[in-house]
Design a protein that fits this description.
This protein has one helix at 2-32, and strands at residues 39-48, 52-55, 59-62, 77-85, 89-97, 110-123, 126-129, 133-136, 151-159, 165-172, 175-187, 190-193, 197-200, 217-227, 230-241. By secondary structure, the protein is mainly beta. It is 13% helix and 49% strand. The radius of gyration is 23 Å and the shape is elongated. The strands form three sheets. It has a five-stranded mixed barrel with strand order 1-2-3-5-4. A five-stranded mixed beta barrel has the order 6-7-8-10-9. A five-stranded mixed beta barrel has the order 11-12-13-15-14. A hairpin with a 2-residue loop joins strand 11 and strand 12 (190-193). It starts with a helix and ends with a strand.
Length: 243
């Protein structure tokens, strides 16, 4: 009899613990709702193990943030609330599986989403993201000149009766400022800053009259970009001092 009572209490405790965990997650989401660093994005599950996975090969998530007791699989379309994380770069704090009829609250003939991707091809006056999303140069954020390999955040609109999607705005996925770093190599029109940041004179803003040289100490604005051995690309550079 005591054993049965003990088992019943253990089950009851597990239910309470589960409810507490769900309540804590809900409270955290409500507290963060107004945080401008959070983004709601749409993507596709590209990797999934028993307790963690990746969205678009970029956004890390754990199984405890998936809503609705849904078992996700590779290829599943999802929406996610994403935050920057020191360990994982981008981490989802909530993941919702999408059904075919889930198109948000947009107009009846189209819906808008935010997605992440890479610039895959360049053409005069236009570019493509991941070979699927065409965009014209007039939707790019000010001061950013896209280059093949750049990681970007795209807000796009998809007509419900069409397979194509049109970009409404394009901006770098992540960017940062680096100060007083050294140009460590230069080959033709390409070079490297601090042995870790790629740049090319084909797509680099420079002050009038300045030509980069090896050992120059510079300040730069860099964006996340997949360039051979490097994951950052300089988009502007200014000389601090010449060695």
């Amino acid at each position: 009899m005591l054993r049965l009572i003990s088992r019943a209490l253990a089950v009851f405790r597990r239910k309470i613990d589960s409810s507490e965990a769900e309540r804590e997650q809900l409270m955290r989401l409500l507290e963060l709702e107004g945080d401008t660093r959070l983004k709601t994005v749409q993507g596709v599950v590209t990797q999934f193990c028993s307790d963690y996975g990746l969205i678009d090969e970029l956004i890390y998530f754990t199984s405890d943030v998936i809503t609705g007791n849904v078992f996700l699989k590779v290829g599943q379309e999802v929406t996610a609330i994403v935050e920057e994380d020191k360990a994982y770069g981008l981490k989802a704090i909530k993941v919702d599986a999408l059904c075919d009829s889930c198109h948000g609250n947009g107009p009846a003939d189209s819906y808008a989403r935010i997605s992440f991707g890479s610039i895959t091809s360049l053409m005069e006056g236009a570019n493509y993201v991941d070979h699927t999303t065409y965009f014209s140069l007039d939707v790019i954020c000010k001061g950013f000149e896209p280059y093949q390999g750049d990681r970007v955040e795209v807000e796009f609109c998809t007509p419900l009766d069409a397979l194509s999607r049109k970009a409404l705005s394009v901006k770098p996925l992540r960017h940062k400022h680096v100060h007083e770093v050294c140009i460590t190599s230069l080959h033709g029109r390409n070079g490297v800053i601090d042995d870790s940041i790629f740049f090319t004179l084909e797509s680099l803003k420079l002050p009038d009259g300045y030509t980069p040289q090896i050992s120059d100490i510079v300040n730069a604005v860099v964006v996340e970009s997949i360039q051979s051995c490097y994951i950052w690309r300089a988009i502007s550079m200014s000389l601090v001092k010449r060695q």
